[in-house]
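Saturday, quiet lab. Running sequence design on the structure tokens for the scaffold JK sent over.
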């Protein structure tokens, strides 16, 4: 084999890994990486070198690394098989940046918003780096060319993928997926490596598939809303969601005390079960889980009626699942939707109403049509309450759950 067939010279390996030929020589001398008989390195050596550099940045030098390797606790060769780097383009980060014209200065900030370390000017660019970054900038330049827009879009993507990757790796580690755990179970090296080798491609395929399905769902929902609006404007339909949108907070009562007694595992189980129940109920009632709050969940709905129907069902399912009893608060009114989250007075009001509710109680802030005869849910007057951060007393309705 030669360099043209996928093998790398020491200089080429240094370029692709973002280091110097001298560091490559040090890794070879330490036995961390190995060249072939012709002095060339296989492409899978690139991530091995990058890992050695990351360990050095974390304070673990070559001597310490090789002592761990020598005791059989870790093998750098594992890393090289987990993923493959794309081919380099032959340009440095600085050279690539210049092709973007006036947007070049934004690249370091965009990388940081993705959650990635901005490359040094002399770093070698790869085909996937250039393709993805160029297409990302090209898309948002068509929508809104302000610098803050690029950063918001990059932050949304980076935060989402980082959460998925981190949580997946946490689960993988917890259940004994890494090779060292598999070896400790008595498996052969090939068997021990299989879960780790399959994790990245399976997760990559899953994320592509899920993104397409969720994108279709979100896009169709927006199209339905727009067509409905056009029909109403033309006098050919009525607004099925003529009310203001609604926000609900559903919290588990006594969660802190119960998990202090039951431990962290029970806390994690409660949170996981709550997420599943909330997502299932929201899907049926036109709702959306905005965020999980440890012992609670925040949901968003197109109308108050949808929110009440969903939260009643969710509270019943929480009890049936053996979780601590829930208490909930709902408020309807204007909201600001931004980057997958919601903000505004209505959100704050719903949170305060939920905090005022007792165990097994669902309270709704009166107003915005909450008492209109069109609603099918039964309620009773719960009086007025002074809620923290809300300037005026709030008239509350108690929803009948049975």
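Result came back. Writing it out in full:
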């Amino acid at each position: 084999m030669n360099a043209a067939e996928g093998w790398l010279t020491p200089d080429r390996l240094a370029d692709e890994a973002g280091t110097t030929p001298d560091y490559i020589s040090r890794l070879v001398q330490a036995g961390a990486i190995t060249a072939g008989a012709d002095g060339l390195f296989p492409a899978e050596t690139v991530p091995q070198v990058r890992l050695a550099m990351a360990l050095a940045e974390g304070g673990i030098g070559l001597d310490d690394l090789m002592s761990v390797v020598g005791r059989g606790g870790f093998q750098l060769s594992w890393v090289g098989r987990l993923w493959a780097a794309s081919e380099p383009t032959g340009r440095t980060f600085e050279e690539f940046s210049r092709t973007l014209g006036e947007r070049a200065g934004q690249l370091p900030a965009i990388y940081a918003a993705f959650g990635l370390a901005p490359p040094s000017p002399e770093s070698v660019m790869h085909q996937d780096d250039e393709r993805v970054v160029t297409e990302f900038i090209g898309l948002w330049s068509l929508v809104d060319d302000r610098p803050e827009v690029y950063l918001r879009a990059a932050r949304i993507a980076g935060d989402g993928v980082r959460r998925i990757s981190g949580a997946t790796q946490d689960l993988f580690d917890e259940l004994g997926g890494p090779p060292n755990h598999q070896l400790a179970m008595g498996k052969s090296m090939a068997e021990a490596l299989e879960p780790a080798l399959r994790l990245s491609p399976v997760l990559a395929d899953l994320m592509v598939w899920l993104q397409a399905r969720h994108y279709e769902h979100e896009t169709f929902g927006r199209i339905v809303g727009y067509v409905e609006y056009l029909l109403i404007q033309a006098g050919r339909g009525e607004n099925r969601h003529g009310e203001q949108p609604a926000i609900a907070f559903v919290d588990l009562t006594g969660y802190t005390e119960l998990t202090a007694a039951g431990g962290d595992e029970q806390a994690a189980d409660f949170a996981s079960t709550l997420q599943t129940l909330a997502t299932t109920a929201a899907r049926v009632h036109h709702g959306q889980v905005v965020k999980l709050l440890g012992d609670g969940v925040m949901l968003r709905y197109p109308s108050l009626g949808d929110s009440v129907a969903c939260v009643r069902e969710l509270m019943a399912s929480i009890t049936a699942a053996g979780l601590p009893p829930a208490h909930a608060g709902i408020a309807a009114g204007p909201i600001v939707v931004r980057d997958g989250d919601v903000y505004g007075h209505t959100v704050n009001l719903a949170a305060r109403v939920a905090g005022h509710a007792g165990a097994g109680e669902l309270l709704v802030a009166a107003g915005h049509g909450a008492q209109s005869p069109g609603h099918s849910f039964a309620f009773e007057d719960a009086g007025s309450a002074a809620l923290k951060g809300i300037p005026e007393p709030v008239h509350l309705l108690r929803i009948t759950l049975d």
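Notes for JK: The radius of gyration is 27 Å. Residues 312 and 401 are 6 Å apart (CA to CA). Ask whether to fix the surface positions before the next round.
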